[in-house]
Structures are given as structure tokens and as C-alpha cells.
Amino acid sequence: MPLEFRLNALPPTCEEIARAREEARLERAQMRRQNIRFLIVILLLVAAIMTIAIVGIIPQLDNPNAEPDVVGLFAYLTPYMFLTVFVVGNTLHHQRIEKPRKVLEARMAELGDASVEELDALESAPPYQQEVMVYRERLKALGRPPVRTEVQMMLAPDAQATR
Questions:
Q1: Is 117 in a helix, a strand, or coil?
Q2: Would you place residue 73 in the very low, low, confident or very high pLDDT band (cuts 50, 70, 90)?
Q3: Does the pLDDT of residue 99 top 90, yes or no?
Q4: Domain ranges (residues) in the chain
Q5: What residue spans of the chain are helical by DSSP H?
Q6: What is the rounded CA–CA span in Å between residue 18 and residue 23?
Q7: Looking at the predicted structure, is the pLDDT value of residue 8 above 80?
Q8: CB 16 within 8 A of CB 3
Q9: What number of CA atoms fall less than 13 Å from residue 137's CA on the CB side?
């Protein structure tokens, strides 16, 4: 379940944030394994096509008894097989690995500790709404610094964050 950062609710505890970070780290490791498996499958597929071309087509080019139509067809279709593998592979990689990886990286960045510049901007911001002041007091009671999402939420209290 994703963490909720709302000004009118209790802030997540250190343990909840640590658990969310650990879940994101495990998900990132799983995505890396998927990425490696995907790339191995694509490379094996390309190697299979290359093997067919080298073992099957090239020797037939020197064979005078070979059917010229069959050899020509395979020689003609080989680049299109590579193109198909390339296009389908890139599309699947983008949909199944790259898009979720970008969402995960954004989530991990949001759960990261706020930088010194962000904390300075929070301290030098104009007087806050009452909800922001209450939320900051709750954070102090928990004894933890705000994460990036909380800093952004407190700097722009009208835009509530649910992460």
C-alpha cells in the first residue's frame, strides 16, 4: 500500500518510510533481473537468426544445385527478421521495463531525504497555513526530518500529495 502524505493526517513513521524504501529497493532489484533476462532472450534470438543465416544460407550460395528462389528468399528475409526482432523487442522493453522503472525511480526519489536546499527553502518560506504548521509539529514529535514529498507538499499546501 502506498504511503499517504496529507497535511490533515498523521505523517508516516520512520518505520513506514523505511519499509516503503525497502519495498522500492526490492522492486528495483527485481526489475534489473527482468531487464537482464529480457536482454538475454533478445540476444539469443538474434544469435539464432545469425546461426540460421551462417549455417543455412551462406553455404547454399556456393552450391550450384541449390534452389535460387529459396536461397534468395532467405537472404532477402533475414534483414526483415532482424528488423522485426528489433522493433518488437524495443517496444516490449519500453512497455514492460522502462516505463515501470521510471515510475519506480520517481517514487524512490520522492521517498528520499530532503536536501539541504529544500530544507532551507522550507525554513525561509513565508508564513504557513495552520495545517502546515500542525504537520511540521507532528514531524518534530516523530523525531524525523521531512522527505522530499513532504517538503514539496508543505511548500505548496494546495497541492495535496498521495504517494
A1: helix
A2: confident
A3: yes
A4: 4-162
A5: 14-51, 58-62, 68-93, 99-110, 116-123, 130-142, 148-155
A6: 9
A7: yes
A8: yes
A9: 8
Diameter of the chain measured on Cα atoms = 89
Considering just the CA atoms, what is the radius of gyration of the chain in Å?
27
Q: Cell 522503472 sits at which residue?
A: 101
CA angle 149, 154, 155 (to 5 degrees): 100
* Tally of CB atoms within 10 A around 37: 11
**How far lies 9's CA from each of 27, 52, 109, 122, 149, in Å?**
27, 63, 22, 19, 14
Express each pLDDT in 47-60 by its tens digit. Answer: 998 898 888 777 87
End-to-end CA distance of the chain: 9
C-alpha cell at 56: 543455412
| Cell reading at 11 | 505523517
Residues in a beta bridge with 161: 5
Burial 55-87 (b: 16+ CB within 10 A, else e): eebeebeeeeeeeeeebeebeeebeebeeeeee
Length of the chain: 163
**Dihedral over Cα of 9, 12, 16, 21: its sign:** positive
Cβ atoms of residues 152 and 119 within 8 Å: no
Return left, alpha or beta for 6; rule: phi > 0 is left, psi -120 to 50 is alpha, else beta: beta
